[in-house]
Design a protein that fits this description.
The structure is a single chain. Helix content is about 15%, strand content about 15%. The protein has 19 helices and 33 strands. Strands 17, 18, 19, 20, 26, 27 and 32 form a 7-stranded mixed sheet that branches.
Length: about 850
């Protein structure tokens, strides 16, 4: 962050949304220097070890400012790419891989080009074209020659050996309706992680977020996997981040037709993997956590299913728990909370022995002779992610224009603004290719960036042109979840938001989409919100119908409806990654060359560099993993003009516990949206492991108890290594860790006789039938964790060792005693896709009408 400085502000709003989106430093942060004419350049990478598929932060200083030219990236910019392989020996002072082993050259690789104006017309600076037969530096031995165009392409050598020479089909004909223009199977315009252009500000600084790929995302690189052939077997390849700084056209275009006096007018035209630019490359080694499975899943697994909110933590804990022989491995699959509760309570053959949920089973459905034990597992939050780059209004002043293309660091959202984004109430959400002619839509803004309600809390957006369908609604999961219910409770508990959803326009004239009104409007449209939704439905019925096409108009395209326009994703993790890539995956581009109706719509491309604007709903761990910025939220009920906006942090999650209330006698804390918690994040979320010990044999009980013990002790130590608590979670406070330890003891020791006696007496027979030392729970018992951290570390938060099972509990008994932590058996993880069918019912439950 020290590399950043705000430019002189032309208005009070300029830069107020922040420009520092760098990810915090880690123990493996490095700073490297450029070479030769780029020796003043210093590039800092925040993390180079213990990497997953994630975002890393790149910041730099000492660069030459990216100056205007025939395109956005015409001179003085940086290019980043990921590579594999041993050192090539070409530069002992700065070892690195050969250019043939870098994933580069796909950002503009679509038939006819993208036409986004980022690179000069005719430039090869975003391609693998390194020469041409007509150039004076032509050398056929440096790559593969395309005889059709005369271009020489730098080969791409995959980690397993196959080589891709010419990556495009020069004879590709879209009219044929078959074939493919791009022929590299390892990465393409959608999947590449290269950054083809990164801008340096006038003060010589810049920043970017780079998504590193493991072998699962890019099999051509194989990072983190034992796939590189060597004598006698395979090994994990060495991987690199490579930076290629680009200078002036005069320096970069030597040997090309754009050299000499015409260089400045042409801009930089050479590829970063061409011989001369590659000499300036900076290579930084990257070390990945192993991708190959740490443990083998067999037939005798200890199955756990449930909330995605705990998935990243369990994935981290898995390898550390794989060292105890003789234990059955654990598998974890994400599934809706409601389905998980149902499977646990039904206890049918093949059901999992333990589930992870955010809310308890309804007490009226629990058999008192077979009680459920709850153990806190994770503390995190539900977040609204965004990836917005400043697309500055041409009429803005010079200071604002200086920040063009720089990523926005923060936005503020109120419950009412969240409601607008959830309810398809902005024009860009329902105007699918044409105006739906809704009366209620007449005065509504096109998108969030045009909403005066948003601008009053985010004034810098008055200078920006951010908009489009991805800035008018969220990329969000399709499945049902307790998290979705919590979001709706947050919105509907706010008087301002509730009045708006009831049907009253806001002070700027914006109205709710009537299909989401919480008061009946007649015409067969039922009121929305009762019961509380547990998914994020897209209820607006408008669908666009494209004209018939093909021979004699015989082919009719499928209708394009709301879920097609901004498609749902399977999971929070997918929403976060889509935000990082600025890519919603929608198939909305009309293909005039289609030869069948089902091929009429093709996939849209990721948004162009510099003008991206996309929003999502995700979990905090996934947002942090992919370096996604998250909105600060005001509390439900805080409708004053000076309302407070609270960011999603470990400290605000810990403080957010005070805005929760115990659910009956079960010892499970549930959200209370309007409760005041100083500095508490409004969408703080807890997950609990839930288990019925008496339904399991002794070995299974011991295994699950071991898992709870690890999760609540060593698993609560924040860090990047396997076995630690990933970023995006806050360590459980002491009271909740004590509750988990007590629950693990209960899982091991509960007997049927003890359960029956407890039901009869309402007391704790597991500790002699006495309630001594136990206390009823109230949120204040936990203290204000936001102010009790040592050095800001929630792991050191102090609080009373409160037993969250209140006296008289007839369902769950949690002894208030300390227990030693056992050594732990493995949980091996099998992350499955979320059950999309559960949410699909909500999304498609209302009839649609096609509109021509």
């Amino acid at each position: 962050a020290a590399a950043y400085a705000f430019p002189a502000r032309g208005t009070e709003a300029t830069g107020s949304a922040g420009i520092d989106t760098s990810i915090p430093a880690t123990d493996s942060q490095v700073t490297v220097s450029g070479r030769g004419k780029f020796s003043d350049l210093k590039v800092t990478v925040n993390q180079t070890k213990n990497l997953l598929n994630q975002a890393i932060s790149l910041t730099w200083k000492g660069g030459a400012p990216t100056a205007p030219g025939p395109a956005v990236f015409a001179r003085n910019y940086l290019q980043f790419m990921q590579c594999w392989g041993d050192e090539d020996g070409s530069n002992p002072d700065n070892p690195g891989p050969p250019p043939e082993q870098c994933a580069q050259g796909a950002t503009e690789a679509v038939f006819g080009g993208r036409g986004d104006g980022l690179f000069p017309s005719g430039s090869f600076s975003a391609t693998r074209i390194i020469s041409n037969k007509s150039w004076e530096n032509f050398d056929p031995n440096t790559g593969s020659v395309d005889e059709n165009s005369g271009h020489v392409y730098r080969d791409f050598r995959s980690v397993k050996g196959p080589v891709v020479g010419v990556p495009v089909d020069a004879n590709f004909n879209p009219d044929a309706g078959a074939g493919s223009y791009w022929r590299n199977p390892y990465f393409d315009v959608v999947t590449t992680n290269e950054i083809a252009g990164a801008r340096t500000l006038s003060n010589g600084t810049g920043s970017e977020l780079f998504e590193v790929h493991t072998g699962l995302e890019d099999a051509g690189l194989g990072c983190g996997q034992s796939v590189q052939p060597v004598a006698g077997g395979t090994k994990v390849p060495k991987c690199w981040l490579v930076v290629v700084p680009r200078g002036t056209p005069t320096e970069e275009n030597v040997g090309t037709p754009a050299a000499g006096d015409s260089a400045d007018q042409s801009g930089v035209v050479t590829s970063p993997v061409a011989t001369d630019p590659w000499k300036n490359r900076i290579a930084i080694p990257l070390e990945f956590n192993p991708v190959d499975p740490a443990c083998k899943l067999g037939d005798d697994q200890r199955r756990i299913i449930g909330s995605e909110l705990a998935a990243a933590a369990i994935a981290s804990w898995q390898p550390a728990l794989c060292d105890k022989p003789g234990r059955s491995p654990y598998s974890f699959a994400t599934i809706s909370d409601a389905n998980a509760r149902q499977q646990l309570n039904a206890a049918a053959p093949g059901s999992p022995g333990m589930v992870v949920v955010s809310r308890p089973i309804d007490e009226s459905f629990i058999d008192a002779d077979n009680p459920v034990v709850y153990a806190p597992v994770t503390l995190s939050g539900i977040v609204f992610g965004f990836n917005v780059e400043r697309n500055t209004d041409p009429n803005a002043d010079a200071a604002a224009k200086e920040l063009t293309g720089v990523r926005v660091a923060k936005i503020n959202l109120t419950p009412r603004l969240v409601a607008k984004l959830l309810t398809q109430s902005y024009r860009d959400q329902v105007a699918i290719k044409q105006d739906p002619k809704y009366d209620w839509l007449t005065n509504n803004p096109a998108n969030l960036g045009k909403d005066k309600d948003f601008l009053q809390f985010n004034p810098e957006f008055k200078e920006l042109l951010s908009g489009g369908k991805n800035f008018s609604g969220f990329v969000m999961p399709v499945s049902n979840s307790d998290a979705a219910r919590q979001v709706w409770e947050y919105v509907l508990a706010d008087p301002e938001a509730r009045a708006w959803i009831d049907g009253a326009p806001d002070q700027f004239g914006t109205k709710v989409n009537p299909v989401y009104r919480t008061k009946a409007i007649g015409g067969g449209v039922p009121p929305f919100g009762d019961p509380r939704p547990e998914s994020f439905p897209k209820n607006d019925p408008f669908c666009y119908q494209a004209p018939a096409f093909g021979p004699g108009g015989s082919l009719i395209p499928p209708p394009l409806c709301g879920p097609d326009w901004l498609p749902p994703v399977a999971a929070f993790r997918d929403a976060a990654r889509a935000t990082r890539l600025a890519d919603d995956g929608a198939k909305v581009i009309e293909n005039p060359f289609a030869n069948s109706a089902d091929k009429y719509y093709t996939r849209d491309l990721p948004q162009p560099l510099g003008i991206r604007a996309i929003l999502s709903i995700a979990d905090a761990a996934s947002a942090f993993q992919y370096g996604v910025q998250t909105a600060s939220l005001s509390r439900a009920g805080d409708n004053d003009s000076d309302r407070k906006f609270i960011a999603a942090t470990a400290a605000s999650f810990a403080a957010g516990i005070e805005a929760m209330k115990p659910s009956g006698d079960l010892g499970v804390l549930e959200p209370e949206p309007t409760a005041k918690a100083a500095n508490g994040y409004p969408l703080t979320a807890l997950t609990y492991a839930a288990i019925k010990p008496l339904a399991l044999d002794a070995t299974a009980r011991s295994d699950y108890a071991d898992f709870i013990d690890y999760a609540s002790d060593k698993g609560q130590v924040s860090g990047l290594k396997f076995g630690q608590l990933p970023n995006g979670y806050a360590p459980l406070p002491a009271a909740l860790k004590t509750q988990s330890a007590n629950a693990a003891k209960k899982v091991r020791e509960l007997t049927a006789a003890a359960a029956q006696a407890d039901e009869a007496s309402g007391g704790d027979t597991a500790s002699g039938g006495s309630d001594a030392g136990r206390s009823a729970f109230s949120p204040s018992d936990l203290g204000s964790f936001g102010g009790s951290f040592a050095n800001g570390d929630p792991a050191t938060a102090t609080s009373p060792a409160v037993n969250l099972a209140a006296p008289g509990n007839k369902r769950v008994v949690t002894p208030a005693v300390a227990v030693p932590f056992s050594r732990f058996a493995l949980p091996a993880l099998a992350l499955l896709a979320a059950l999309a069918a559960l949410g699909a019912l909500e999304i498609t439950k209302r009839p649609r009408r096609a509109v021509s």
